[in-house]
Specification:
Elements: H1 5-12, H2 40-44, H3 65-88
The chain binds zinc ion.
């Protein structure tokens, strides 16, 4: 089979890792849209997805970016406290 540069670029493109029913739950494996993790069918198309800061789907707020940042800061502080406690004995 003859391979062109276009074919090579498509073969080396990052793959969509969306789980699909038609593939028995395995990843889709279609080429992902440039700059995105999904193919054009699974959410990589232009204009798809929620805008930044969209709060339509918030139910309890435990997974917002502010909470994630706060949890990370607390975890880092606890690690530093553990290290300091080990150093002091
Ligand atoms: Zn896909």
């Amino acid at each position: 089979m003859k391979t062109t540069s276009c074919t090579l670029r498509l073969n080396n493109a990052p793959r969509c890792d969306a789980r699909t029913k038609h593939n028995n739950g395995l990843p889709c494996r279609s080429p992902a849209v440039r700059g995105k993790r999904r193919c054009r069918i699974h959410g990589g198309a232009k204009g798809s997805g929620a805008p930044k800061g969209n709060t339509n789907a918030i139910k309890h707020g435990c997974t917002t970016s502010e909470i994630k940042t706060f949890k990370k800061a607390v975890k880092t502080a606890l690690c530093k406290a553990d290290q300091l406690q080990k150093e002091l004995g």
